[in-house]
Structure formats: C-alpha cells, structure tokens
Design the sequence.
C-alpha cells in the first residue's frame, strides 16, 4: 500500500462517500477546482451538481445545507479557513444543532462541516489561525479532530454517515503527514486511541499535537514512560478510555491547541479528576488565554503550545507526584 | 392547485384569528408560559399564500409563526398543546410557540432567529427538486428581516441557482418598535430587484388579493421560474409580544392602530360569504378551538427526566449536568 497523505485521505473519504450514497453532496468556495487541494478531481468525477461552488455567502450556504439535510440529503461543506466558523456559528448552533430537539424529534440534520487547514498556517496571522473546536464541543455539536491519515479517512466517513451535524477539524499541522495504510475503515465517534503505551503519565494530545506528544515521549523515553492518548473526537469524548489510562499512570498532562480559559484541556482535566485520584496535580499546555495568533513566525510559534512546554509539564508532574 | 374557494379562505383566517385570541387568553391565564407573538391582523397573508400551495410544498416562518403553521394545515389541537408545553404538542413540548413545526406537512418550523428561514427553505426546495419533485417553497419574514445579511445572501443563492422560493415579506410597519421608515434604506421590493427577483406589493389585509398574487407567483415558479417576492402590507392589531400587555410600550399612535383595525382581513373575507355560510364556519371553528383548548389543557406534561430526549437524531446521549 502506498503512503497516504492526510490531505489525500480526506479526498478519498469524500470520494468514497459520494460514490456510495447519492444523497451526499459537497458545497463550498472553489471546491470544483479544489483550491484547498482536498477536493481535487471530485467535480470531474461526480459533476458540478454534486460538487457545488458557492458564492461567498457562508451564512446562507450553511443554512442552505441545513434545509437540504431536512429534505433528506447529506451535505458536506468545506470551509476555506477556520475563522469562518465564527461567521456561521449561528447557522450551525441555532439551527442545524437545535432542530431535532426543538421539533421534538421530527427531523435530523446530517451536515458535515469540514475545516481543512485549521489552526495556525504559519504567516496567515490573526484571522486565519484559529482552532475553535472547544466552542463546538461546548454547545454539543459532534466535534472531530483526526491526527493521522487513516483516522482522517475513517472519521470523515463516519461524520458523513452520522445523522447529526459534525464539525471535522483537519489541522494545518497534520495536512502533509503521510503514513502506510493497509486498509481504510470508518472510525467510530467517541473512541480514543492510544498511540504509545506508558506507565508514568498520560499525555492527552489533540490533532496534530499527537505527533508532538509522540516526539516528546520518545525524547524522554529513558527518563519517563509516557502514554499518549488521542481522543480523536472531542464531543462525544472517550472519557472511559481516558479514565482507564489515567487510572494506570496516575498522572495527566493535556496538550491542546486552543485558548486556555474554558478550553478543551480544562474540560478534559475536570472530567478525569471527577473520576480518578491523581498522584500529582494535572497540567495543561495550551495557547494563552484569549490568544490571537500574531503574524511574525517567531510570535506565532510562541503562542502555540510547544514541545518544550510539554516536556517541562511532564517533568513537573513527575516531580510533584514523586 | 390553487384553492380559490372563498369559504375555505375565510375558514383559515377565522381559524387563525380565533386560535390567536384563545392563545392570548391562555397566556393571561398562565397556561402558556413565555408568551406569544400574536399574528392578529396578519391572518390574510398566511391564508392567502398557503391557499396557493400544493401538497409537496414546504415553508418556514418566523417568531410570529402560528398563522403559517395553521394555514398549512397543522392540527390546531396539537399546535395549542405545543404552546402549552404538552407531550401531545406538535414538537412534543420541546419547541413551543416560536418553533412550532410539522415536518409531515412541509412546515420546517417557525424560527425565532429573524431572517433565518430564507436560506433553509432554499436548501430544502433545491434538495426536493434534485430528487425530481416539483416542490416550491415559501419563506415568511417581517420587514425587520430585510436588513439581515443572511436573508439577502439567501436571495442571491435562490436567484443564482433558480430555486423556486416565494419570499413573503409581511410588512407590518414595525420591527418590535422600530418603524420601517427608520430601518429600511431603499425599499423592500428594491432588495429583490437587486437580485433580479420579480417583486410585487400587495394589500395583505385582503386574503383574496394575497391568494391571487401568490398563485400567480407559484404558477410561474412551478413552470420553471426562479424565486419571487411578495411584499404584503399589513398591520399587527396587537402587541409585538404579549409581554407588551404588561409593559405598555408607547410607540404606535392610537389613531393609527384604530385605522388599521378597520381593515380587518377576517371581516373583509367574511363579507364575501353568505350569512349562513359564515355562521356555519364560525361555529365550526369555535367547536374546533373549544376541543383544542380541552385537548391541550388535559394533555400530560413531559417528564423532566426526558428533558433532552430528541437532542440527537443519531441517538447520541448527553452527559447529565448534576453530580
Ligand atoms: C437575528 C435576530 N435579531 C433580533 C431578534 C429579536 N427580535 C425578535 S422579533 C424582532 C422584530 C422582528 O421584526 P420583523 O422582522 O419586522 O417581524 P415582526 O415582529 O414585525 O413580525 C426582534 C428584533 C431575533 N429574534 N433575531
């Protein structure tokens, strides 16, 4: 099996679902030529009726997808930049997400919101570098952040088949990853994945940060035995899987590319300490409170959670808990 | 397709009128909590437009949505039960006045976000058409909504992709207390003209006039035309919301209200009937609403343990908040 890139895995998932189910269609800005490189070739294969270029009108086409879903289709929207989610938060949260409950179960809204290139794309500055997954987890929209090509494939397929709205964040930092994959299968929601087993501390890492956590774990291997836990979906969250891991290691560090206050890391830590008595206070490595990514590369990097910070957090946790 | 029977048109406006009056009573009696946005005075628009629709068509309304849902044929008893928050309600007590919906008859719901219905209906109609149906859709909204960007984006999408959506602006002169002249630069029909959407202004107080205009638009749309817009001039006889009964906001000159009330759609349509026919409809509507009120008030309230049932269509369950 050839090495599959993360970006191609997304394309493959879209193509497979478009081929499998007539109800699936894709809409977004410049999706026919594939400006994001994720939808390349799909318009040729499936036609421009199913791969629809939209005018720049995110709010309308997001609610258009809600209406199409109410009428029985399964739309996938590709957003060019993560910050557009702020623009359509209303349409996703107030409409797509709330419809089933508000109608007393009369309908479902199976829309997938695909956000390739989420998080910092170095040099794209303040309005192109957000990673707003915690907002969606907070409101209870199914929220997916795959870390590997195989998971990107498997989770996107699951998202498209899911009967509720799902936001799929494909981090910029993961888009160029490649891996050997033997078979591509759907990945269930709410099931985490342990990428590396360890005895001393559980590091939860989200999206592309899984690879940073693995690198740090490797670096520290002769000092600390680090377990790397990738939740894969942030909502629903695999709290049982994580609890089991932390119950073994007794220590917890979370690496999260979101802002600190009210972020995923806070939620993960709270959920674990409700269930497990830790050997040391938990730690989190995140973007700063209220961060806006500055332009200059050194500043951009300074705001993103980094490997050094993670190594330090692991050391401190080990020291506190020894 | 159009239902031109004047008796049925009268029946619809009368049903909405009496439903609203009974609902206001139930608000004052405390049986409807949260209050309602009464559609009193605007009945002719929903009735006239819905008379032009066929069985496959879809619509979405507004916070002032009872008339749209009833005119489309929803069961008044289940609708009233919904307003009272009962399990027998259209939405099993989860939606209430502002979200009453009946997907089984193409009512995608009243919607409490101003300007929201246009894009949703455009997507729904486009989807139905893709599957070979000849569905048309109606998006109802107020004059306040024509300043919402999303609605104008929806005009663009519908016109660009030639989706047959009838945009119905119920211009009752006010958005809450904001007069239309203080809010709308240009004109409402001009908004449509900018997207090459044909627009007409009609007297929304005459149900028959509305029906004729809507039928013409629906016929053209079904024959392959793109979206159209109707600006129906109307007036709400009552408050923006029943909270106003308590706070007594002062923004409409009393003589303006009484002049408007003189042009009553129920009376205008009623005068087209014989006294016998009108009396028969009135009695029938009264009996329906008496039964509806009994049904609503005698229906069980939902079990608090089920508060988040229906949150996820996929069957996902949410973690509880306590403990
Ligand atoms: C987007 C949005 N803004 C504000 C509100 C609060 N609000 C509810 S109804 C209303 C007035 C709407 O006026 P109009 O569209 O003219 O409809 P009408 O009430 O006159 O039927 C407002 C401001 C809302 N629900 N949604």
Sequence:
């Amino acid at each position: 099996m050839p090495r599959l890139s993360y970006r191609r895995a997304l394309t493959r998932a879209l193509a497979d679902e478009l081929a499998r189910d007539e109800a699936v269609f894709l809409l977004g800005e410049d999706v026919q030529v594939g400006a994001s490189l994720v939808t390349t070739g799909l318009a040729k294969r499936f036609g421009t009726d199913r791969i629809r270029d939209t005018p720049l009108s995110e709010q309308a086409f997001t609610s258009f997808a809600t209406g199409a879903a109410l009428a029985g289709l399964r739309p996938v929207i590709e957003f060019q930049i993560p910050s557009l989610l702020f623009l359509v938060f209303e349409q996703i949260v107030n409409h797509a997400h709330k419809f089933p409950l508000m109608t007393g179960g009369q309908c479902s809204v199976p829309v997938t919101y695909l956000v390739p290139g989420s998080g910092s794309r170095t040099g794209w500055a303040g309005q192109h570098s957000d990673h707003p997954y915690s907002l969606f987890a907070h409101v209870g929209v199914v929220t997916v952040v795959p870390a590997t090509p195989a998971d990107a494939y498997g989770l996107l397929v699951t998202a498209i088949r899911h009967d509720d709205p799902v936001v799929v964040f494909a981090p910029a930092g993961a888009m160029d990853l490649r891996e050997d994959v033997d078979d591509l299968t759907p990945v269930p929601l709410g099931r985490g994945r342990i990428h590396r087993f360890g005895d001393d501390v559980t590091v939860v890492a989200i999206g592309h940060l899984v690879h940073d956590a693995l690198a740090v774990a490797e670096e520290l291997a002769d000092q600390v035995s680090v377990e790397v836990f990738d939740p894969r979906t942030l909502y629903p969250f695999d709290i049982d899987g994580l609890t089991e891991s932390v119950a073994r290691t007794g220590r917890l560090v979370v690496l999260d590319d979101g802002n600190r206050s009210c972020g995923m890391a806070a939620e993960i830590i709270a959920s674990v300490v409700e269930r497990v008595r830790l050997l040391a206070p938990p730690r989190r490595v995140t973007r700063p409170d209220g961060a806006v990514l500055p332009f200059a590369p050194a500043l951009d990097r300074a705001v993103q959670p980094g490997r050094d910070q993670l190594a330090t957090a692991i050391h401190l946790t080990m020291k506190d808990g020894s | 397709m159009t239902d031109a029977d004047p008796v049925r048109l009268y029946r619809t406006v009368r049903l909405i009128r009496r439903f609203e009056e009974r609902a206001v009573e139930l608000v004052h009696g405390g049986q409807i909590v949260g209050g309602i946005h009464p559609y009193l005075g605007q009945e002719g628009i929903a009735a006239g437009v819905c008379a032009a629709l066929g069985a496959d068509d879809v619509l979405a309304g507004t916070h002032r949505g009872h008339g749209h849902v009833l005119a489309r044929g929803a069961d008044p008893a289940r609708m009233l039960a919904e307003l009272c928050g009962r399990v027998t309600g259209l939405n099993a007590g989860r939606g209430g006045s502002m979200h009453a919906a009946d997907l089984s008859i193409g009512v995608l719901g009243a919607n409490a976000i101003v300007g929201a219905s246009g894009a949703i209906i455009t997507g729904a109609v486009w989807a139905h058409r893709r599957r070979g149906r000849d569905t048309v859709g109606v998006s109802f909204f107020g004059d306040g909504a024509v300043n919402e960007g999303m609605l104008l984006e929806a005009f663009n999408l519908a016109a660009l992709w030639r989706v047959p959506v009838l945009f119905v602006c119920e211009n009752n002169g006010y958005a809450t207390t904001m007069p239309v002249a203080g809010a709308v630069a240009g004109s409402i029909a001009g908004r449509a003209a900018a997207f090459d959407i044909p627009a007409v202004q009609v007297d929304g107080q005459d149900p028959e006039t509305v029906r004729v205009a809507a039928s013409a638009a629906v016929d053209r749309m079904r024959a392959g035309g793109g979206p159209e817009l109707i600006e129906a001039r109307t007036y709400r006889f009552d408050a923006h919301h029943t909270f106003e009964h308590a706070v007594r906001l002062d923004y409409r000159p009393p003589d303006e209200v009484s002049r408007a009330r003189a042009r009553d759609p129920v009376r205008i349509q009623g005068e087209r009937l014989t006294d016998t026919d009108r009396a028969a409809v009135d009695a029938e509507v009264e009996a329906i609403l008496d039964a509806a009120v009994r049904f609503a008030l005698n229906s069980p309230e939902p079990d608090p343990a089920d508060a988040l049932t229906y949150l996820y269509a996929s069957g996902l369950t949410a973690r509880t908040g306590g403990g």
